[in-house]
Write a structure and sequence with these properties.
The chain has about 230 residues and is an alpha/beta fold. The chain contains eight helices and seven strands. Strands 1, 2, 3, 4, 5, 6 and 7 form a seven-stranded mixed β-sheet that branches. The two termini are about 25 Å apart.
Length: about 230
Amino acid sequence: PTGHIMSSQIQCLNHLFGIRNNERAIQSLLLNATGIAFDCILTTLDNDGLIEFEFTYNNKELLGEDDAGAQRGAFCTSVDAMIRAQKDKKVYLVPIEWKYTEAYKDDDLTCDTRIKRYQHLIEKSEQLKVPKEGVPHSIYMKEPQYELMRQTLLVEQMIRKGIADYFFHINIIPNKNEDLRQSVEQNFIPMLNNPDIFCCIDPSDFFKPLTVAPFINDPQLRIIIEYLRKRYWE
């Protein structure tokens, strides 16, 4: 991981790594963000706890991402954190994209490679609307929509492969990063067929269930919460 103190990757790890094996805490966070009372949290696909970081999954096969040097967290679609949960015997994927101080220029990322990889998947997507003007030069070819679009396609492809039944997409963005939140809320969410399975939430609001009893009575969780409050929330 980077050592940059303003990194969203590090903020994600600082929030989630300490609770990666705490099923009750994770269930409470997901209930708060998704409104779904999951029956249980499943182990990660790499069998390392209940939260997987920098998640990728057969990107070359599912998304056609075959760049040289592609690996977890580099040159391919990845998700900051992935949780697998179960409700009524159905498996949910819960990808979490974590942002902190990011700001994006209005650059058009359209190129032949990206259109070849993603256009046909967008056209088959159940969640993403096809832009009236077509995929090239559309909102999907600009950040932060470009990243969220690819994450949506990845989990949809996993569902088509039978790895899960449903998904719920969480985007962590601090309330004070007004420009980024506005971009997601005004540009990406209107392009979703079902915006009810997408949540944009501030990190302190996401963690609110762990700041009250019974969780705050746990000495280890209390230390984590106080650290997060001092470093990030206040």
